[in-house]
UniProtKB/TrEMBL annotation:
Membrane topology: Peripheral membrane protein
Keyword Endoplasmic reticulum set for record: yes
Transmembrane regions listed in the UniProt entry: 6-22
Cofactor annotation: heme
InterPro entries per the UniProt record, alphabetical: Cyt_P450 (IPR001128), Cyt_P450_sf (IPR036396), Insect_CytP450_Detox (IPR050476)
Organism: Timema poppense
Keyword Oxidoreductase: yes
PANTHER family: CYTOCHROME P450 (PTHR24292), CYTOCHROME P450 6BS1 (PTHR24292:SF103)
Keywords: Endoplasmic reticulum, Heme, Iron, Membrane, Metal-binding, Microsome, Monooxygenase, Oxidoreductase, Transmembrane, Transmembrane helix
Record's protein name: Cytochrome P450
Length: 124
């Protein structure tokens, strides 16, 4: 029996945490920012089987932390943990902010002039 979508939307609008079954698969819907931060920062390693129906042979690009499960998820998590430490992310922030500001100003100028925007020109 499928759950009606309006019922889920109404429930998630008022509840911080919703736990439901879809067929025989348990699903957890979170809306509380404190709980979401706790899971994404502190307890991320406990939530590795989020999508058991994923087929890994589709494309290498699709093999990311959000879609892998089990031992494949653990291996990628170990690799990425060392690559994206807090210090490294903080160093990347200035570069990301600079690039995004350049892109916003370029797109703003192009939009003001009513020109067709060529994506190749957006690159630095």
């Amino acid at each position: 029996m499928d759950i009606e979508l309006p019922w889920i939307i109404t429930l998630t609008a008022v509840a911080a945490v919703v736990f439901l079954y879809r067929d025989s698969t348990p699903n957890l819907i979170l809306r509380d920012p404190v709980i979401i931060k706790q899971i994404l920062v502190k307890d991320f390693d406990h939530f590795f089987d989020r999508n058991p129906s994923f087929v890994e042979n589709i494309t290498p690009v699709a093999c990311n932390l959000a879609s892998l499960t089990g031992s494949h998820w653990r291996k990628l998590r170990v690799k990425l943990t060392h690559s994206f430490t807090f210090g490294k992310m903080r160093l990347m922030l200035l570069t990301i902010l600079g690039c995004s500001q350049d892109l916003v100003s370029f797109l703003g100028e192009s939009a003001d002039d009513n020109h067709i925007i060529e994506i190749k020109k957006c690159r630095r």
